[in-house]
């Protein structure tokens, strides 16, 4: 039986050495296969501190090095891939180290960081139809910059990522376009994006009950697909059937075409069977 790649983790702390570690966010990072969806909510303000989604590429197994691309990014770091080195600690937590932009300092310098991550339990027993884990990306893409000679001002797409593992669901949406900026005195087209809207929903995965919206933020949050709104089933129409099971295939959720980026039916026991 194949080992599941589905994971949901929360960040315990962030540290910029030599400063002490701290945590001001409620962060959940969900991943299945080679894709992830990550939503970080500032606890005090209730607003998005950082939201991103994209590919999760394992560059090395030993040491564990993972590259994260940014197809959605509230900080607009679309051309930047995060590279994290992970070390498993004795208590089961994962220590991630690397370098990234520090936005709270003047000039946003690149600094060394340490993030401590803790995996949340995915139950071994769930109700029938609740053992799915997947990541979806809306099909519409910005055209390749090399194909745009003029008229880029009117090119916009609404990019959406949806991710689910048993007991957890994250949805992110961002309008994206191209803009011109000066680089070394020359005009260059770059990808830009608006504010990210997000939803994070949770439920008791062992029973399929007590579903709740933990966060709904941003102007588009109420227009994002919601598993809670799906009712008692906690499923989208056709979920787990046919094309849902085949990465690269197109499925429809709430009238929007999505590419299946990753799908697993977890090796778990069904309640009552």
Automatic annotation (TrEMBL):
The keyword Nuclease does not apply. Pfam families: HRI1. Keywords: Cytoplasm, Nucleus. It is found in: Cytoplasm; Nucleus. InterPro entries: Hri1, Hri1_N, Hri1_N_sf. GO terms for cellular component: cytoplasm; nucleus. It comes from the Eukaryota. Its main location: cytoplasm. Signal peptide: none annotated. CDD domains: HRI1_N_like (cd11692). The keyword Cytoplasm applies. Belongs to the HRI1 family. This is Protein HRI1. It comes from Arthroderma benhamiae (strain ATCC MYA-4681 / CBS 112371). The lineage of its organism: Eukaryota, Fungi, Dikarya, Ascomycota, Pezizomycotina.
